[in-house]
Amino acid sequence: MNHLQVQGRWRLSAWRRTTSEGDVVYPLGEDASGLLVYTSSGRMMVQMTAAHRSLVATSDPLGGGVDERAAAYSTCLAYFGSYTVTDGKVIHNIEGSSFPNWSGTEQVRPYELSGDELVLRTPPSKTDGISVVNEISWIRH
């Protein structure tokens, strides 16, 4: 795959999290929405949100109660930066993220591209001895 093949806008089809025990979860729900953009200049951005998110009781995007902000934060993932495509992987060099631990990091995503569907996966990670892989499917938009 090269930059030209992934370049453009992609609509979220599904974000599935599969465990080594065979469990499948949809972190933002089966009806989540999202947009992934890869530009010709090597820039990228992504945002995914759960459907039916609760409103925050303020007009200030940085305001609201702690519980309201926590609920809003846990139903959205967004980041931006640059990207490269190499050796069966898309590498996201993250400059800023709603998940602060990713800001300034490199996130490697093995991929599959079939027609207008792009599937990105995270490398397996272990928590309490259970392996987890995130699979995020996108449809060209």
How would you spell out the order of helices and strands? HEEEEHEEEEEE
Coarse shape: globular
Quickly name the level 1 CATH class: Mainly Beta
Quaternary class: single chain
Major sheet attributes: 8 strands, antiparallel, barrel
* Beta-strand residue fraction: over 45%
> What is the count of β-strands?
10
Weakly predicted, low-confidence segments: none
The total number of structural domains is 1
Class of secondary structure makeup: mainly beta
Query: Architecture, according to CATH?
Result: Beta Barrel
Superfamily at the CATH H level? Answer: NlpE, N-terminal domain
How far apart the termini lie comes to 18 Å
Helical fraction: under 10%
Arithmetic mean pLDDT:
94
Radius of gyration: 16 Å
CATH T-level topology: Lipocalin
The helix count comes to 2
List the helices and strands and how they pair.
Elements: H1 3-6, E1 8-19, E2 24-25, E3 33-38, E4 43-49, H2 66-73, E5 76-86, E6 89-97, E7 106-114, E8 117-121, E9 125-127, E10 130-140
Antiparallel strand pairs: 1-2, 1-3, 1-10, 3-4, 4-5, 5-6, 6-7, 7-8, 8-10, 9-10
Give structural notes.
- The protein is mainly beta and 141 residues long.
- It has one domain: Beta Barrel (Lipocalin), CATH 2.40.128.300.
- Helices cover 9% and strands 53% of the residues.
- It contains two helices and ten strands, in the order αββββαββββββ.
- The protein has helices at 3-6, 66-73; strands at residues 8-19, 24-25, 33-38, 43-49, 76-86, 89-97, 106-114, 117-121, 125-127, 130-140.
- It has an eight-stranded antiparallel β-barrel with strand order 1-3-4-5-6-7-8-10.
- It starts with a helix and ends with a strand.
- The mean pLDDT is 94.
